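hey can u check if this looks right to u? its 251 residues, i copy pasted from the old doc so theres a chance i mangled smth
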Amino acid sequence: MSSAIQRIGAIGLAAVLSAGAADAAEIKLVASNAVKEAYGQLLPAFEKSSGNTVTVSWGGTADIMKRIGGGEIADVVIITDAGIENLTKQGKLVAAGRTTVAKSAVGVGVREGAPKPDLSSADALKKSLLGAKGIVLTPGPSNPYLHELFGTMGIASEMHAKEIKPAAGQQLTDPVIAGTADIVLSQASELIAVKGIAYAGALPQAAQIVLTYQSGIHTAAPQPDAAKALVKFLTTPDAVKVLKQNGLEPG
């Protein structure tokens, strides 16, 4: 366990948890895969400090929006700000309960041991992409922005021809690990910890795509107070250190 997580448990979180329920609660969290790695480290510390338990269901933003919009009930939902806005307008989430919890940049991954592409500038990125035999793109919220970026670069048709989509049942990074593609572009937080993948870095500033992730409290949340305490915990300074270690930035 990292020192940052240990400190979170050590401080007792009296102020953070003061808004939570006095008795132990079971919190249902539905969250984007973009925060999975970081929260997988943070949630056990929250449970230990608060006495509450957290049941998590991970997924992509589009899938989560469909589930919550279709009637699934949770205490907390964490997806992109646009997704939270949409569900709030549907009346599924409490408007006053929105909190920005993290920002996630798009990064580049290659097969472990392979040369890392030059990401020092937009022109360098363009050359690296044109030199790749195949690329894999996230199917998540960054996907349309990546296609827009390729259009701006003037390489949309070339990238379309190079794009490789994972087969059914495959992970996003599998074609790169297998060697059928050279580069995978996705949220940095979804690439950093993948075995068999070397994280090459974030897209250069001139080409960067950053998504904002927010939390929303469900209008029918069984444990709204405990849910608010969880969100406060996930935005503490020590929690932010864990986010940064996993390719995320604070809100």
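DSSP finds eleven helices and nine strands in the chain.
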